[in-house]
Amino acid sequence: MRKESNPLTPAEVAEILKISKYTVYEMVKRGEIPAYRVGKKIRVDSQDLQEYIDKGKGNEPAPDEHLVLPPASLLESPLLAVETTAKAPGLVICGQDICLDILGRHLEHHPAGVRAYRQNLGSFAGLLALYQDRADLAAIHLWDSDSNSYNIPYVRRLLPGIPAVVIHLACRMQGFYVARGNPKNIKQWEDLMQPGIRFVNREAGSGTRVLIDEQFRVSGINRQMVKGYENLEFSSLAVASAVSRGIVEVGVGNQKASMQVRDIDFIPLRKERYELVIKKEDIDRAPFQAVLEILKSPAFKAELQGLGDYDLSETGKTVAEV
User: Fold this and answer.
1) Distance separating alpha carbons of residues 283 and 288, to the nearest angstrom
2) Which positions ≥6 away from 4 have C-beta within 8 Å?
3) What kind of fold does domain 173-271 have according to CATH?
4) What stretches in the chain show pLDDT beneath 50?
């Protein structure tokens, strides 16, 4: 029988986890922390939060095994479930960055706009949804080590036979999350193999996971020698939180997430290109033209600029027709 549990507000959860309230909302949105609604308010049971913390800390003798269990999928979330077996009316936008939420809101208020549906999917899954006609736009950040370029090689391979247009969203910085002051002196990829360094990975198919695996290959790093490689988190915020709470010594993610979590430092590694993929056959339709207009608008860019960690010098530019 489940014990009595006290409901917690997002602010109270943030204080317990030493993260920002915004981070809590993101974790709830991704299904990483169970939550429910009371009217328009979100609440988290204290017992559910304790179970989340216990899973992260691990109560077993081997602390590097199964540090954090995978979150429930969006389909299992009664708060944020979105139908994925068929495309919803309006435009379905795949990706995991908050800039896509802002794009969706602008789209819904545009004169030629439509309702926007958000799918928090990684880069591979987003392209697959686009290929299977379950999505209209997919935001990706996939580094190809052979060409030292982003996105275009993957679009060509994962959308076979489908002409597509790649639109630039923003450049972001990817790097290591480490404890404040970087006590383990982690500066480069080879440092992940040092004794006493616990790592937390991202899920297969995410842009960050592709960067990690490609960089391991280029650097000649045997992933079996990286303690914690098999342990997964499903967002940059969750990775940063794991480092902040001392569950691991290092993880990889974007700089913006490091600004939202306490007691960690960010070690920059690579500037990445975050870009939007649209089927060429759709580009002249009114809702998609509205998207292009929004991306180039001063209002959209100003809102992103206020969030930090975005290079918007090419936002809205068509970078390739593949």
Assistant:
1) 6
2) none
3) D-Maltodextrin-Binding Protein; domain 2 (3.40.190)
4) 1, 58-88
**Residues pairing with 318 in the sheet:** 167
pTM score, whole prediction: 0.74
Q: Hey, is 115 helix, strand or coil?
A: coil
For residue range 78-90, what is the model confidence (pLDDT) as tens digits? 333 333 344 446 9
Quickly name the fold that domain 91-172+274-321 has. D-Maltodextrin-Binding Protein; domain 2 (3.40.190)
CATH 1.10.287 fits domain 1-52: no
What is the tens place of the pLDDT at every residue in 137-147? 999 999 999 99
Cβ-proximal residues to 275 (8 Å cutoff; 6+ apart), any chain = 139, 140, 141, 150, 151, 166, 167, 168, 169, 319
Report the distance separating Cα 15 and Cα 19, nearest Å: 7
CA distance 168 to 243: 31
Bridge partners, 278 (sequence order)? 137, 165
